[in-house]
Each structure stands twice: as structure tokens, then as C-alpha cells.
Design brief:
- The chain is an alpha/beta fold and 363 residues long.
- It has two domains: 111 residues, Alpha-Beta Complex (Aspartate Aminotransferase, domain 1), CATH 3.90.1150.10; 224 residues, Aspartate Aminotransferase, domain 2 (3-Layer(aba) Sandwich).
- 41% of the residues lie in helices and 15% in strands.
- Strands 2-8-7-6-5-3-4 form a seven-stranded mixed sheet, sandwiched between helices. Strands 9-10-13-12 form a four-stranded antiparallel sheet. Strands 1-11 form a two-stranded parallel ribbon.
- Helix 6 links the parallel strand 3 and strand 4.
- Helix 9 packs across helix 12.
- Bound molecules: pyridoxal-5'-phosphate.
- The site of pyridoxal-5'-phosphate has 13 residues, from helix 5.
Length: 363
Amino acid sequence: MNIQIPDHIAAIKSYQPGKTIPQLQEEHGWEKVAILWNNENTLGYSPKSKQAVIDAYDSINYYPDPISADLKKGLAARLNKSEKEIILGNGSESVLMLAIRALCSGEDEFLTSEGGFVIIYNWARINNVRCVAMPMTDAYGFDLHAIKNRINRNTKVIYLANCNNPTGTSLTKAELDNFMQGIPDHILVIIDEAYFEYSRAIDPEFPNSLEMDYPNILTLRTFSKAYGIAGVRLGFGIGNEKIIQAMAKAKLTFEPTALAQAAGLGALNDDEFLSKTIENNTTGLHYFYEEFNRLGVKYVKSYGNFVMTVWKDKEEVMQVFDKLMKHGVLVRPLMPPIEHCIRISIGRPEENEHCIEALEQFL
Ligand SMILES: Cc1ncc(COP(=O)(O)O)c(C=O)c1O
């Protein structure tokens, strides 16, 4: 076989799946387990979402609605936007990919920060778009000044996550406004607000990019976090109609699936579950802060459903990771340039306590 793999694909490292939870369970024989490694909603999902999926299953022999009209309508009403300004996809990861695929070509560059959500760098490279990542600030935040200074004639898309995963750091409304004022309007600024529902509960002043009046902002949101349906893959983008139309052309015809659309509508109509989730998160976050202070564990204040702890170096990180794993506490060691950090998601109260008990045993 002599098929040539293009250089930009050959250069990408393949995803290396770790062991599954059942495999790890068999290996370690844990009595209890705390799954705190993927920023998932460990309270579960809305019963309304489950019922909507069960009902939708009866029509599974038909293709889904390619424009997700009902869900779009529900979202438009909730977000006070027009349906034409919304696009849905298989997770916000897919919506990000649509933006890159629809807008970037030739020498166009994707500009962002180091220490962001790991998948974004790959989506740029897979689409053969040069990805430029600026160093973070000393406080693990996005260095907006450095990003702005790095803009050149090839810059097409800037990606900012607010709050950022895995650092948990946030940008204020004033910082974002100040940044946007210097950005030429031929550059699309993607503001990824995957954790928005949590962020707003942590800080009522947390900026909502949907309320910012810049036509070159594309906001990303997801049903994977506070809405608790990561497994069905559903996210959305909100932006200028012209951008949304271009992205729709790049979308898989029947993305997202009928079950995902139904799950999303059910979840959207369950404020009770959403409030419970948000409350559990804010309480869990403060519990971790107090316990980390008591144990002398360094951390960065977070605006999401996770907190980044800071250790001496990679070696210490792997020791902590292994020890927690032995106790059935699954956390996420991070990649360079923050390989001296571990991200811990907020779980149910008993999972958070289990994590602290395990840490306390060896600290
Ligand atoms: C900042 C950020 N954006 C996007 C995503 C992906 O979300 P989705 O499940 O909607 O693809 C994540 C998931 O962890 C995230 O942390």
C-alpha cells in the first residue's frame, strides 16, 4: 500500500485512550470511586432529557431534522437571539471545528494561548491551519496583550476560553471589551463559554459575550457540562448570521442526531436540575478551597466545574496522581506548559470528600 498521508495529518499525535473505568476497577479493586477527571456532571442528567430521548426513539428510523429547528427555537427564546444566529453541532468541539473549516484557508492563522483546552490545537492543525499559541501570564491566564500584539495579516481566528479549561481562569468584561476594541473586524474572535452556567453562579458579574455588541464574536456553549448530557454530544455556536450561514455549509448534513436534539430540548426545559447542578458546583468548589487551604495544597481560583491544583513539578504530579488512583480517585495530570498541575473536577459531596480523605492520607 502506497497511499501518502498528508504531512499535516501525519504530524498529529493520535489520541491515546487510557484504561476504561471497569478495567481500572478490576485492576485496583476499589471499594468506592470518585470520577473527577473529565469535568463531567457527576449529579447525572435531567429526567426530562431522558424522557425526551425515550420519546424520540420511536422515530429513530428517520433522519434527524438537519437544522434542529425546535431546539434552535428553544435556544433563541432563552438566549434572546434570532434562530438565524444559532448553529448546533456534535458538541461545541464540533462547532469550533466548523468555524475553522468554514472560515480558514491558505495562509490563515488560528491565534490563541498556550495552556488551553487541548483539543483546539488539533482542530486547527487537522484543517491544515497554522496554530499560534502565546504563553500564558504568570497567573495562568490568557495574556490578551501578547495575543493582540501577535496579530498579523494572516490572523483569521482568535480563540479565547472564558473560563479557560484546565486553568479555570477568567477574563473580565472590561478586559474583553478592551481587547475587542483593538481587533480588526475581519478577524473572528471565538469566545468559548462551555462553563458559562457555572461561571455566572460563581460570579454574578461574569461576562456574557452574548451581550457584547461585536459582530465578529462567535460564542460557543455546550450541553455537556451543567446540562449533563456530554454522552449524546450537543453544543452550539451563536454569532453573526453571515458566519453562521457559512458554518452551516461545512456541517455534516444530519448533525446533531435526533436523540441529541431531543435530549437538548428536554434538558433546556429543566431549570430545577440545572439549579441543583449549579448549587452543587459552587458548594463543592468552596469545599475544595477550604480543604486545600487546610492541607496546604496550592490552587488557582476557578470559574468552572473543576479546580487546577499546582505542585512542585511533573514528578510530584505523577506521585499524587498514582496515589489518588490507588484510592479510586481519578483526576487529570496536565500537559506542558502546566505539567506541574493537576485538574480536579467538582463531584458530588461524597466524591469530593473521598478525594480530600485520599489526599490527606499521604500529604
Ligand atoms: C473549554 C471547553 N470547550 C469545549 C469543550 C467541549 O465541549 P463539548 O463536549 O461540547 O464538545 C470543553 C470540554 O471539556 C471545554 O473544556
